[in-house]
Amino acid sequence: MKQKKKTFKTNKNKKKEATEKHVKFKLAGRDFFLIACFVLFTTLLFFYSGDGVYFKLFAFSNPFENSKTIEKTPNKFIVPYVINTQIIPSITATSVYVIDLDSATPLYAKDQHARLFPASTTKIITALTAMKFFKLDKILTVKRVITEGQVAGLVVGERLTFENILYALLVHSGNDAAYVVADNFPGGYDKFIIQMNEVTKELHMANSRFTNPAGLDATGQYISAFDLSLAARKLLENKELSRIVSTKSITISDVGFTNFHSLTNVNKLLGEIPGLGGLKTGYTENAGENLVSFYTHGGRRYVIVILKSEDRFEDTKNIIQWIITNVAYKQFVI
């Protein structure tokens, strides 16, 4: 009886051992399968970027495939150059600066760092400064009337949106509009002038300084053609300002639709020369005729700055013709 009991226990232990070995074998097989799948999937991820949307979410970039892509799509640079440097545009201006806008490459320069009176080209900086603090729908109040020089005919007490003031400022070149902006600035008029000069520092305009927002001649107020090109480039980066300076004419009103003001762009070349997108004029007796122009031709964009000219519009026409006939482009591949 005792012998049978011992045999039964031995058989039971053998069965237990056999079951444990079977389970261990199954686990080992499963682990091997999982490891094999992981290795295969990882290999695919590394060497194949995959065409499927979901596969691409997880796929690593293939360095070999990327190197082929670089070879197929090399870096290309388009550089402007003057065909004949002996040919220069016929101009009367004291200071001129012409650049290819996209590459910031200078194409023609004449005393571009000379400090001259800015006249109403000042309003580019006035607009850039104001855009940092006012939203287009902000309501501004006319606090005083300015009658000197070009004005939009604004009325004391009149309330207009900042957007409409910008039209009066940049299209009609209203000196009264410039003072509305400065007078409504947080901290007042003097703070605005300080901010204007801060903007020139931000734009690295080393030969510019302002003492009033309209560009009226004043001691210590000056700008250079080079600096104006920097300001123009900054303005053109802003879609709203770029749209406004290209406006030929518009009628604005106060918020109550009581007073209406018909505004016409001072730049008579706007609408006359194909590709000319306007920008900003300026004139005082001391400054002479100033003009900053945005011009496009053949898919390229240009900024033309003219200061202290005897005929800014004719000078600009001559420069545009010079660009058309004497500026070309080379493509370099790296």
What does this protein structure show overall?
The protein has 334 residues and is an alpha+beta fold. The chain folds into 2 domains: 71 residues, no CATH class; 257 residues, DD-peptidase/beta-lactamase superfamily (Beta-lactamase, 3-Layer(aba) Sandwich), CATH 3.40.710.10. The protein has 10 helices and 11 strands. Strands 3-2-10-9-8 form a 5-stranded antiparallel β-sheet, with helices on both faces. Strands 1-11 form a two-stranded antiparallel sheet. Strand 2 and strand 3 form a beta hairpin. Helix 4 crosses helix 7, helix 4 runs parallel beside helix 8 and helix 5 packs antiparallel against helix 6. The longest helix is centred in the N-terminal third of the chain and has 46 residues. The N terminus is likely disordered.
Largest sheet geometry: 5 strands, antiparallel
Strand arrangement in the largest pleated sheet: 3-2-10-9-8
Q: In the residues, how many domains can be counted?
A: 2
* Gyration radius from CA atoms, angstroms: 35 Å
Reading the helices and strands in chain order gives HHHEEEHEEHHHHHEEEEEHE
- Shape descriptor reads globular
CATH superfamily of the largest domain: DD-peptidase/beta-lactamase superfamily
**CATH class division of the largest domain:** Alpha Beta
